[in-house]
Design a protein that fits this description.
Blueprint (H helix, E strand, L loop, with lengths): L16 E2 L3 H4 L2 H12 L4 E4 L17 E2 L2 E4 H4 L1 H19 L8 E2 L2 E2 L2 H10 L3 H7 L2 H7 L8 H21 L23 H4 L12 H6 L18 H6 L14 E3 L6 E3 L18 H8 L9 E2 L4 E2 H16 L8 H12 L7 E9 H4 L26 H4 L21 E5 L4 E5 L6 E9 L2 E5 L5 H11 L1 H6 L13 H6 L5 E5 L4 E4 L5 E5 L3 E8 L5 H14 L7 H10 L6 H28 L3 E4 L22 E4 L7 E2 L16 E4 L3 H29 L7 E2 H13 L6 H25 L17 E2 H13 L2 E2 L2 H24 L5 H11 L4 E2 L2 H23 L6 H12 L5 H28 L7 H11 L7 H26 L3 E2 H13 L5 H24 L8 H5 L5 H13 L11 H16 L3 H29 L20 E5 L6 E3 H4 L24 H14 L1 E2 L1 H26 L36 H5 L7 E3 L29 H13 L11 H13 L44 E3 L7 E3 H4 ...
Parallel strand pairs: 1-2, 20-23, 24-26, 25-27, 28-31, 29-32
Antiparallel strand pairs: 2-17, 3-10, 4-9, 4-11, 5-6, 7-8, 11-12, 12-19, 13-18, 14-17, 14-19, 15-16, 15-18, 21-22, 21-23, 29-30, 33-34
Helix pairs in contact: 7-8, 21-22, 22-23, 23-24, 23-25, 24-25, 25-27, 26-27, 27-28, 27-29, 28-29, 29-30, 29-31, 30-31, 31-32, 31-33, 32-33, 34-35, 35-41, 39-42, 41-42, 42-44
Length: 1407
């Protein structure tokens, strides 16, 4: 979109547009009076009738003929006309000098000679400008760009064209001065020389006229004309001499004036001429005479053609279509408007249009239908004949005072017609006698109007006189000639209020008294206008007559005559008009009385009555001021037909004043009764009007209350006073006062009407503070006094105090929340829209946020990154403020720094390999200055603290030289590994821990069975949970539940922990050995009890089927195995795989088979490697104790063997065990054997109850070595097959070393696991056989066999050559028949036998 040019026309604001309803439209005067307070502020207004109001066009188009006026657009504008007049004078000056003016071009533009001449004159003249070198300044002021040598060109043009004219104007060319040289021309000038620019004009043609001359003044070149000389003799030539120098020489340079025949040398003239002019030449004297003649008054010329309405329309449409090169209806109104004002201001464009203006409707017929007119009105349109808006009726309706003007005034009381074309215009003017005017556009294209309000009339006149003084000097009443226009933008730039409107067909435009208006037509149209005057106009009408007197302008009608005519009809006047007439007549009589007294004092004694009613207006005009005389005039017998008004008595003639005659229409005695008659008619109204006026104009404490206004209104209604301005004003003031009182009361009561809450919280009915202040001022400016005004004033004062306090608080950098909240609480009392409230709410949010930031900053321990982000997010939503921005900047900076250090701390802690403690400490020290809660930085500090504590602990351990326990080492390593710091001792400790773990793994591989669930410490320590196992087994048996289903092991785990803890907390090996020794004692006691319990349950019972044995908790049946250690019985199918081979080692149940039994040498190597580890392990202490027990047992065994003189034990070949089979009801098929049984007691039972047998015999507890170590390297067991004497020695050894025996037990869960393992790989012990009974060293070997008695309770008294005996290996050492106690010879040879009595006695002893 292109920007408008600086000189492009900018449309003024629009004037009011009214659209009355039918009710309002019915009475035009009432409607105009109603809109007058609004419309008179803009001078003009537009009225759109109701849509159905469409009067027919009554003018006969074919018969209407008129001669239009010719309008040259660039002559209409005042400033442009001044320039054209100046150019005319310049052209005339050079024309009289015998040359033709050609206006030069500068920078491709026509040079504005008027502006150049004015600027040079303002700078002090040509000489001053040249002296001070101001030509560049002149060029810039004329709109040329500096730096292009335009100033020198302007100087040349001024010197050649304007300088001689200015010399002529000043009269310098009439003086005899010394001849001066003509300045040399610039050789590089692009303009033609003076001789080329100023040439002789052509011979004038007979039809030349001023208008033709003006039209041709812009031509570039004119052909030369011959110079005519009369033939003269040489003697006459010698008589011609120069009037300047008095010489007759240089005849070829001697000029003869074509006006007076005086002679001048070309070089004697000022300025001198270089060449003889080729045309007619005038001397300076004749030139002065010609140019001093007065100018013709400017006016529109009449066209030479008579147009019909149709022909004019065709011409107008063709012009507009050709000019804009488009159909007339497609040309935008804005384009026409801008083009019009461009043309009126362009001197180089000469566009001429024609305007059919001021066509009398009386002669050609009105556009509205009239009664008895030539236009036949249809019945539907008859309503328009008497319609008030019919302009033929409007001016002469009763409300119009013009009805009292006797003559028909064309244009005022009779409408005028206007036929326009594109660009045809009506210039700035006000209506005659400052009356109203109304214009109706019947049809055609719009008419554009511009108007200024009546109060700005003098201002507009002043501006136009200032901008075009030359025009007003020659025509003081120029604005009354309707021939001058001025751009509205120019007037508005000088402070004149201008308004515009586009009047379309079917619309009225009303102008108000003394409102200047002008405009132009957008195209072909037809309009009609008339004047009218209302009662309110009468004071202005008298003021206008006085104004006309000053301008010497004629009156259209006599104002005094109109007033007197109304006074003679006082009885018929309405009271309002009578009152207005009375006031006007009082002024008229007062003025007339003063003037008559004045002329009488001057000596006028002759008086006579004159019937001026019967004279035409032009016959009774004042010869001086052209005022139409009515009440009186002065005449002189010397000048018949000449009269003057009483103001200009001195201008009548030179006769003595005593000769003057005072002509009067009424005597003063006649005027007063007329005024009194009007007064009586208006007296009631005047008295009421006086009281109303006094009430309305009362000030301060004299103001009346609202009841007084209501009473005056009621009086006007009761007396039927007409609706005039005063009554309307009273009604309006009363209505305003009532509304104000109601609103004021609501404001005071805090009532809110129709509150629609908007987003801002303001209701639509709330007043702003400015509105409230204006409302309070309005209350005090009201003509009545309201009691609510002081109260509202006090409320306004409180609000202003609130605003001042709010302003102060808002100006503070950081106001407190409490202070802002208190202000907001105070604002709740004001039912006013306070602009500070949104700001206060914003500041309250800001203050709360700032306090939150301050509170968070004051507690760095709780200021987390999330809190800072949340505060920043909250701050982003706040309104911008310096304090908020500062706090946001600080918070953002702190957040950025905190995030940086958090990320850095996290990266430092997660670095691999870890950083040194020095690096971390330096970073932590820098991060510690940040006042915020930074988890990573705190973690970094905590890590550094832990690292420092760990290093201190490691240093203390190193300094103390103590051997670390495995737990403390593991704990230190784990803590060191958890610390994300590079710890130098950690690697060494990790190596120690790795060595300890490697040793434990090696020991576990040595001792632990495959797939064993036991720990190494459980295996190496004495068994401490045997009792728990037995109890569990008993409970399981009692509950008839399978043992492996009981999976509880808290007691074992807790006990193991306690053992491990005790070993770990022991300060030296002695305390650890004491702990282990205590466990050993508990183990022995537990195994003794377990064996006795298991043996006791195997005693014969009434029904063996009630016995529950083995893991399956079923009765003994079939092949059975008895554990060598715990003496419990197990079904062979439950604990042994059929594929397993029998071994010679004693059989241990899965509960008792806890570990492998490595060679002692291998154990010694483990101990050696343990010492190199350098760490105290609970397993190491247990292994040391186990080795000590083993070595101790070995020493005692060797000692006993040595004491008994027995040979060293040697390895013997293993033989498969002999299985013993016994089934009830079967004969014994074995040689030298009887049916064996577990115990002699079983033999005494009924054979029918015995349904099981043992595959292997048990040995006594004393004979079982519970150690996990083989005492001989390479041997399979310490229980190899022995001779009876060896067994006896061994038995003694075991009895002597009973405290060292260690029964072992296992919990149910582990036995269950071992059971599975044993099923896969059962271990069997080899057994040796012997047919001879064992001997007892305590008895004599020579005892007689016959004297021996079997002590069995149920001895079978065997018979035969050989009876096998077996000796009790218990305390009694008695001999029993093998068959009586259920022992086979093989069992007697390889196993010990303890009778039932010894077994029971031993149990009693233990208890």
């Amino acid at each position: 979109m292109s920007l408008p040019r600086p000189d492009e026309f900018k449309p003024p604001p629009e004037c009011p547009v009214f659209e009355p309803s039918w009710e309002e439209f019915r009475d035009p005067y009432a409607f105009i009076n109603k809109i007058r307070p609004i419309a008179e502020k803009t001078g003009i207004c537009k009225v759109r009738p109701p849509p159905d109001w469409q009067p027919p066009f009554a003018c006969d188009v074919d018969k209407l003929h008129f001669v239009p006026r010719i309008q040259r657009l660039n002559e209409l504008e005042a400033q442009t006309r001044v320039k054209l007049n100046f150019l005319d004078q310049i052209a005339k000056f050079w024309d009289l000098q015998g040359c033709t003016l050609k206006i030069p071009h500068v920078e491709r533009k026509i040079l504005d000679l008027y502006k150049l001449n004015k600027l040079v004159a303002d700078e002090g003249g040509f000489d001053i400008v040249c002296q001070d070198r101001r030509w560049t300044k002149i060029a810039v002021q004329m709109g040329f760009s500096p730096g292009k040598a335009v100033g020198s060109h302007l100087r040349g043009h001024y010197e050649r064209i304007l300088y001689p004219y200015n010399l002529f104007q000043s009269g310098a060319n009439l003086l005899c001065v010394q001849k001066t040289d003509q300045p040399a021309e610039d050789k590089d000038s692009s303009e033609p020389k003076l001789q080329e620019q100023i040439q002789r004009p052509p011979a004038p043609t007979p039809d030349a006229s001023p208008s033709a001359r003006r039209a041709k003044r812009m031509k570039i070149e004119v052909g030369p004309a011959e110079l005519h000389f009369s033939a003269q003799s040489s003697t006459l030539v010698d008589l011609v001499v120069c009037l300047v120098c008095g010489s007759g020489g240089d005849e070829d340079r001697l000029l003869l004036c074509d006006g007076c025949d005086d002679s001048y040398h070309t070089f004697c003239l000022i300025p001198p001429l270089h060449d003889v002019p080729k045309g007619d030449w005038r001397c300076p004297k004749c030139l002065a005479q010609e140019c001093s003649k007065p100018h013709e008054a400017f006016g529109f010329e009449q066209a030479h053609r008579d147009y019909s309405l149709r022909a004019f329309g065709q011409m107008a449409d063709a012009f507009k279509s050709d000019y804009f090169n488009m159909p007339v209806h497609m040309v935008p109104m804005e384009l026409v408007e801008k083009e019009f004002w461009r043309l009126v201001g362009a001197i180089e464009e000469d566009v001429t249009v024609e305007y059919g203006a001021d066509i009398a409707s009386k002669e050609f017929g009105s556009g509205f239908p009239i009664p008895n007119g030539k236009f036949k009105v249809s019945p539907a349109d008859e309503k328009y004949l008497k319609c008030g808006w019919n302009l033929n009726n409007l001016a002469m309706m009763n409300p119009s005072v013009l009805t009292h003007v006797t003559a028909d005034i064309c244009g005022m009381t009779l409408p005028w017609l206007y036929v326009g074309m594109c660009f045809s215009s009506f210039c700035w003017h006000i209506e005659d006698h400052w009356s109203y005017s109304i214009n109706y556009l019947h049809w055609g294209e719009p008419k554009t109007w511009y108007g200024a309000p009546g109060f700005a009339a003098e201002q507009l006149e002043k501006v136009m006189k200032k901008l075009a003084p030359e025009l007003f000097d020659s025509q003081p009443d120029l604005l009354h000639q309707l021939v001058t226009i001025m751009n509205p933008n120019t007037l508005m730039a000088h402070g004149v209020p201008i308004y515009r409107t586009n009047q379309c067909a079917g619309e009225f435009v009303i102008t108000f008294p003394r409102a200047y208006h002008s405009g132009f037509n957008q195209g072909f149209n037809f309009a009609e206008a008339v004047n009218f005057c209302t009662v309110d106009w009468m004071p202005l009408g008298r003021q206008c007559v006085d104004h006309y007197r000053l301008l010497h302008r004629y009156n259209v009608f006599s104002h005094d005559e109109m007033v007197c005519n109304m006074a003679t009809k006082a009885g018929t006047l309405n009271v309002v008009l009578a009152s207005a007439v009375h006031k006007d007549m009082a002024l008229m009589i007062k003025e007339e009385q003063e003037l008559r007294d004045k002329v009488k004092k001057m000596g006028v004694v002759n008086c006579k009555e004159a019937k001026y009613d019967n004279l035409q207006d032009d016959e009774r005009q004042c010869a001086t001021c052209r005022t139409t005389c009515y009440l009186s005039a002065i005449t002189c017998p010397c000048s018949p037909g000449v009269l003057v008004c009483l103001y200009h008595i001195n201008n009548l003639c030179s006769c003595p004043v005593s000769n003057y005659v005072l002509n009067y229409r009424y005597t003063m005695d006649d005027l007063f009764p007329m005024m009194n008659a009007v007064k009586q008619r208006a007296e009631l109204y005047d008295e009421w009007a006086f009281r109303v006026t006094a009430t309305l104009e009362a000030r301060l404490e004299k103001k009346k209350g609202l009841p007084v206004f209501r009473s005056l209104l009621a009086e006007s209604e009761s007396r039927l006073f007409p609706d005039n301005d005063l009554l309307r004003r009273l009604r309006l003031v009363t209505q305003d006062a009532e509304k104000c009182a109601s609103v004021a009361q609501q404001l005071l009561n805090g009532k809110k009407q129709t509150r629609y809450r908007c987003g801002s919280g303001r209701s639509r009915s709330q007043l702003t503070v400015e509105e409230l202040s204006s409302f309070v001022r309005q209350l005090y400016n009201l003509c009545c006094s309201l009691p609510q005004a002081p109260q509202l004033k006090e409320l306004l004062n409180r609000i202003e105090d609130f605003q001042q306090h709010s302003e102060k608080v808002l100006a503070e950098e950081s106001p407190s929340v409490a202070e802002i909240q208190s202000l907001l609480d105070v604002s709740f009392d004001f039912d006013v829209d306070l602009p500070e409230l949104p700001l206060l709410r914003e500041r309250l949010e800001q203050a709360r946020w700032l306090e939150a930031v301050q509170e968070a900053s004051s507690q760095p321990a709780t200021l987390t990154l999330e809190a800072m982000r949340r505060l920043i997010d909250q701050g982003v939503g706040l309104a911008p403020h310096q304090s908020v921005e500062k706090a946001m900047a600080r918070l953002q900076e702190q957040l950025t720094l905190s995030e940086h250090w958090e990320d850095k701390a996290s990266s430092l802690l997660q670095a691999r390999p870890p950083h040194s403690i020095e690096t971390l400490s330096a970073a932590a020290e820098k991060a510690s200055v940040i006042p915020a809660h930074l988890p990573n930085c705190l973690l970094l500090k905590d890590t550094i603290r832990k690292a420092q504590e760990w290093l201190q602990e490691a240093e203390e351990l190193q300094v103390s030289g103590c051997v670390m326990t495995a737990d403390s080492l593991s704990d230190m390593v784990l803590r060191g590994q958890a610390i994300q710091v590079q710890l130098e001792p950690l690697e060494r400790l990790e190596s120690l821990l790795a060595n300890a773990q490697e040793w434990k793994e090696s020991a576990a591989a040595t001792f632990l069975l495959k797939d064993s669930s036991l720990t190494l410490l459980e295996v190496l320590c004495p068994s401490f949970e045997v009792g728990t196992l037995s109890t569990s087994k008993r409970k399981a048996k009692k509950g008839k539940e399978y043992p492996k289903n009981n999976k509880k092991k808290p007691a074992r785990l807790n006990s193991l922990r306690e053992v491990e803890k005790a070993l770990s907390e022991s300060t030296d090996s002695t305390s650890a050995m004491a702990t282990l020794e205590e466990l050993r004692v508990r183990e022995m006691e537990t195994f003794f009890n377990l064996r006795a319990a298991n043996e006791s349950k195997l005693l014969p019972t009434a029904d063996c089927m009630d016995l529950k044995v083995c893991f399956c908790q079923k009765a003994p049946m079939g092949a059975m195995l008895q554990c060598e250690l715990c003496r419990d019985a197990f079904h062979s199918v439950c604990v042994r795989d059929p594929s397993d081979s029998f071994e010679t080692q004693p059989w241990l149940c899965p509960h008792c088979q806890r570990s492998e039994k490595p060679p002692l040498s291998k154990v010694f190597s483990l101990l050696t490697s343990l010492r190199s580890v350098g760490v105290r392990l609970p397993e190491g202490d247990a292994l040391n104790y186990l080795v000590d027990r083993t070595l101790n047992w070995q020493q005692r065994a060797q000692q006993i063997l040595t004491d008994c003189h027995l040979p060293e034990l040697e390895e013997r070949p293993e033989t498969p065990p002999t299985l013993t089979h016994w089934v009830s009801g079967c004969d014994n098929t074995h040689t030298n054997t009887q049916a064996p049984c577990l115990t002699p007691e079983w033999n005494r039972t009924s054979h029918a109850q015995t349904v099981f047998y043992t595959e292997q015999r048990c040995i006594p507890l004393q004979g079982q070595n519970s150690l996990c170590i083989q005492t001989y390297d390479g041997s399979t067991s310490t229980r190899d097959t022995m001779t009876p004497s060896e067994r006896k020695a061994k038995r003694r050894l075991e009895r002597g070393g009973l405290p060292d025996a260690e029964p072992r037990g296992r919990d149910k869960k582990h036995s269950h696991k071992r059971q599975k393992v044993n099923k896969k790989k059962p271990q069997r012990r080899p057994a040796s056989t012997s047919s001879s009974p064992r001997s007892d060293f305590s008895q004599s070997d020579d005892s007689d066999e016959e004297m021996a008695v079997c002590p069995a309770e149920s001895c079978l008294l065997p018979e035969g050559d050989e009876v096998d005996w077996v000796q009790c290996d218990g305390r009694c050492n008695q001999w029993f028949h093998q068959v009586c106690v259920g022992v086979t010879p093989e069992m007697a040879e390889k196993e010990d036998y303890v009778c039932v009595s010894c077994t029971l006695n031993d149990r009693q002893i233990r208890k």
